[in-house]
Design brief:
- There is one protein chain.
- About 35% of the residues lie in helices and about 20% in strands.
- By secondary structure, the chain is α/β, with parallel strands linked by helices.
- It has 2 domains: about 240 residues, TIM Barrel; about 55 residues, no CATH class.
- The protein has a 9-stranded mixed beta sheet with strand order 7-8-6-5-4-3-2-1-9, with helices on both faces. A 3-stranded antiparallel beta sheet has the order 10-11-12, with no helix packed on it.
- The protein is globular and about 55 Å long.
- The chain starts with 10 loop residues before the first strand and ends with a helix.
- Bound molecules: S-adenosylmethionine and iron/sulfur cluster (SF4).
């Protein structure tokens, strides 16, 4: 794999804050419902230690973007967020570095948002999932329509994004449309739209659910496309829609195969050097991570795996990538498989990306790279 790097690979920082008030029955993220107080400052301290111990992985690079994800980062104190940001200020690539923090409606008041902005956050990601009480109950959420509306209003004038889930039990095309209309009316400039996935090791996996059928799902996706495009949003990735100029810089770095340093319990990293690309994972238990921020897992991506890893990321970008945007030289084996996709009309000729047909059946298109 030697010699793959074309440029210095951009590096983003992901900070995992695992706090949750309750465990949602569909979620398999690395979370804890342990009390925040008592551990909040200790975790912030451990995170800073972790970053400061990662100079070999950072390799002199500045963070292109920063993302506080969870869990529910809005449960952390503003002091701990400010402490983390103040401690790494000299590591930002510029004054405009995108710094996102995820919030849940049950703790996203106007005051809290103001304090977070003062602390240095410049983009809020709000996990609404739905504005419909029946759907929120079906998802086991601890917020209702009223608090979802209030939290959305609190985002007025702020660079922000909302997460919606579709394919919820008993969801109809009408209730989905109402969810989407609420976001459009609220003038939110970015939206992540996820189909509910039933993950192993979740409560939903063991439950009999009355999920909408395939036909309803297809209708929902068509409604989303029509309604969002009509209102000035463009899809730029499988689940991501944005008004022009509001695409997530942090997530784009993942899909463009940039590097990311993950800190916090259970966080993932991907780091490249001249010789290899390595994926790391931090230990999951909160107490263990606070004690010792070592990685439990360390896996070098082999030449064989690289093709599929590249395809699973690059091909998610709706309009593809120009050669000049690539940070690594595409391996000969990747290009050979790409040629097959070109011949079958699934992949683009002038850019690295999928055609309309290839994008519609993206999972199948990606299979070409195994
Ligand atoms: C890690 S969660 C954190 C956000 C925040 N804690 C919340 O729940 O609102 C990020 C997003 O992933 C999505 N998500 C989590 N589990 C999912 C699942 N099983 N299917 C679809 N989307 C899911 C939700 O939209 C959620 O907002
Ligand atoms: S969906 Fe969000 S709030 Fe619910 S358990 Fe997962 S991270 Fe926590």
């Amino acid at each position: 794999m030697k010699g793959l790097l074309l440029n210095k690979i951009p590096l983003s920082l992901y900070v995992h804050l695992p706090w949750c008030e309750t465990q949602c029955p569909y979620c398999d993220f690395s979370i804890t419902t342990d009390p925040v107080s008592g551990n909040d400052a200790k975790l912030a301290e451990a995170i800073i230690k972790d970053i400061n111990q990662s100079d070999d992985l950072i390799a002199g690079r500045k963070f292109k973007s920063i993302y506080f994800g969870g869990g529910t980062p809005s449960l952390a104190s503003v002091e701990s967020i400010k402490y983390i940001l103040d401690s790494i200020k000299e590591r930002f690539s510029s004054e405009e570095t995108e710094i996102t923090l995820e919030m849940n409606p049950s703790n996203a008041s106007e005051d809290k948002i103001d304090e977070l902005l003062m602390a240095g956050i410049n983009r809020i990601s709000l996990g609404i999932q739905s504005y419909n009480n029946q759907e929120l109950q079906a998802l086991g959420r601890n917020h209702d329509r009223e608090s979802a509306i209030q939290a959305t209003q609190a985002l007025k004038g702020i660079n922000s994004t909302i997460d919606l889930i579709y394919g919820i039990e008993k969801q109809t095309t009408e209730s989905f449309t109402a969810n989407l209309e609420k976001i459009i009316q609220s003038n939110i400039n970015h939206l992540s739209l996820y189909q509910l996935t039933i993950e192993p090791n979740t409560i939903f996996y063991k439950k009999e659910l009355m999920l909408p059928d395939e036909e309803t799902i297809e209708k929902i996706e068509l409604i989303a496309k029509e309604l969002l495009e009509k209102n000035g949003y463009q899809q730029y990735e499988v689940s991501s829609w944005a008004k022009a100029g509001y695409e997530s810089q942090h997530n784009l770095n993942y899909w463009q195969f940039g590097d990311f340093l993950g800190v916090g319990p259970g966080s993932h990293s991907k780091i490249s050097n001249e010789q290899e690309i390595i994926r790391y994972r931090k230990i999951k238990p909160l107490g263990g991570y606070i004690q010792n921020q070592r990685s439990t897992d360390l896996k070098t991506i082999s030449d064989n795996e690289l093709d599929i890893d590249l395809a699973m990321n690059l091909l998610r970008i709706k309009n593809g990538l120009q050669q000049k945007d690539l940070t690594i030289a595409l391996p000969a084996s990747f290009l050979k498989k790409y040629q097959r996709g070109l011949d079958e009309g699934l992949l683009l000729k002038d850019r690295i990306g999928a055609t309309q047909k290839g994008y519609r059946f993206l999972n199948e298109t990606i299979q070409l790279f195994f």
